[in-house]
Amino acid sequence: MSLEWRARSTSVSRSLAWSNPLAWWWGVLTVVSGVNIAVWFVLYRQFHEQLTGSLGGPSGIGLMLLLSAAYVFGCAFRSFLPRADVQRICLFDTWLSSVVVGRSVATVAEICFAAQWAIILHQLGTMTGADTTLNAAAVIVPLILIAECFSWYAVVTTNYLGNAIENSIWAVVFFIVGAGLCRLLPEFDGPVRVVLIIAIIGIAGYLAFLMTVDVPMYLSRWRAGVADGSKLLGPLEGLRDVSTRWVVTHDLAEWKDEIAWMSLYFSAAVWASLALCVCYSLESHLPRYRTEVTIASWSSDAFAAAGKQQSVIYLPALPPLAHCRPAPPVCEGGSESGT
Question: Per the UniProt record, which residue ranges are transmembrane (predicted)?
């Protein structure tokens, strides 16, 4: 390590004083992430009996907590060491701030978050027989895998169009999730319906943010790059660049467009991940909040099916026609006619 590098690093680190708004922003992110980690451990302790019991299998609450851990701790790591991938900027000069590390952590975390939504929709769709919800659950993870490919394309080549496509796919995914949740509204009443409405409102707000702020921002950067004739990186050159180059900057102007989405991403999205664990654990309590119309419809269908089954099982068999003998004719005197 050269003395020149050390001097630059020391100078930069001192510039992140509390007089710099970025220091306060980073401090808030750090505190929020610490609280999120603490909440995850509380949930883990709360569900410990279920983890060691019948629900501890690969499709139970244990899996949901594991997926949530990947997202909670992944977001905490990225909030402790913020970076903007395509620009290659970060707050702290360490190899952990390299884009390849941050993007790898983000990829795993985002796939796990998508899997959580798929599991919860599959749970509710199976319980209610809602095909729309089940179909939504089936397409979430495949679409997010495609979105991650575009994200890596953008990071490696520095082409913001990949970011725009990635976030557009996220918008499509959560539109589908919202549709799946809307389908469940007639199936539940009481607190469960309230939770569904809150989730739908939150998703609507997220979609509005994506389509009015996030995607237009990346499209604007892409158009500016095309107008300036910016050179895109090739695959090998880009992989080397994301692994070895990161630029430390504490200039608020460099970060101002990242603050909004990072703040929501590392707070509200993590809270959603934790909430999904709680919702999944309440599966045994959900039937009591099914709507009366749904229960009555289910009961009538069940009785109808039982009636059909009984009519088939208990229908008396008729004797064969070949063994039937007509009654002999009777004479006027009341005696039977002989042969």
Answer: 23-43, 55-80, 100-121, 133-155, 167-185, 192-213, 259-282
